[in-house]
Amino acid sequence: MSILARLATLLGRHRQDAETVWDALPPAQWLIVGLGNPGLKYVHTRHNIGYRVVDELMRRHDERFIGVPGIPARVARTGVSEHGVLLVRPTTFMNESGQAVAPLAASYAIPADHVIVIHDELDLPAGTVRVKLGGNENGHNGLKSVTAELGTRDFVRVRVGIGRPDAGKSVVDHVLEPLQKGSLDLDALHDAVRTAADAAEIIADRGVPAAQNEIHGRR
Predict the structure, then answer these.
(1) Among 14, 30, 90, 166, which residue's CB has the most CB atoms within a 10 Å radius?
(2) pLDDT tens across 19-60, in order?
(3) Could you tell me the residue range of the domain that residue 196 belongs to?
(4) At which positions is tRNA bound (predicted)?
């Protein structure tokens, strides 16, 4: 057997194993979506905090992202307690995130109030995490896209504070510049990633009020 044939066989077995594990999981009842921009230059920016949170969840559950034919997203399926969860990383740019969220929600018949969107929030101090259901978009283009594509604002948000820019710095520069090692914001956001991941798991397991009570009470 040629090397290419062996590789094809191994890949086929891996795909079958992955499908077997996927089929054994509970049906997806929640979408947990991390907003961000694709590409290496955005990896360490404040705007990509949502990506970092779903990556943390993927690590906790020992899952891997896979592509979805026809949908601009990479997903990982897992469970929180007995609840099936789909972790989602849109592969669009931030302002088109809804193009990934809406078709996935429709495919799995997941209602808007079971869609959890994790995003950066200018109006919270860096590192603060807050949970809410519905509300306006506060100028956030990713949230605007999700609202437009879902046709409602009634989805859950896990808001990760990044703070406002210093005087003289634009919002665009603030959200898109790479965070520097040793900066206070970097340390705060590192902790916030874990807190936001906790929040998403609590929501999927016990609901929004339980997450608000626990997460908002943390110092």
Answers:
(1) 90
(2) 444 455 567 899 999 999 999 999 999 999 999 999 999 999
(3) 27-215
(4) 42, 93, 95, 141
List the binding residues.
42, 93, 95, 141
Which tokens in the block code for residue 138? 């506060």
Q: Does residue 21 lie within any of the structural domains?
A: no
Distance CA 64, CA 55 (A): 9
Residue 17, domain member (yes or no): no
Give CA separation, 134 vs 20, 50, 76, 118, 185, in Å.
36, 17, 25, 13, 27
Q: Name the amino acid, one letter, at 87.
A: L
d(CA 84, CA 77): 7
- What are the tokens at 194? 């874990």
User: Contact 138/123 with Cβ under 8 angstroms?
Assistant: yes
Q: Is residue 188 part of a domain?
A: yes
Q: How far apart are CA 75 and CA 170, in angstroms?
A: 33
Task: Please tell me the pTM assigned to this model.
Answer: 0.86
How many structural domains are present in the chain? Answer: 1
> How confident is the model over 157-199, as pLDDT tens digits?
999 999 988 888 898 888 888 887 767 678 889 899 999 999 9
Q: What is the CATH number of the domain that holds 43?
A: 3.40.50.1470
Q: Catalytic residues, which ones?
A: 47
Q: How far, in Å, CA of 68 to CA of 95, rounded?
A: 20
With H, G, I as helix, E, B as strand and everything else as coil, classify residue 105.
Answer: helix
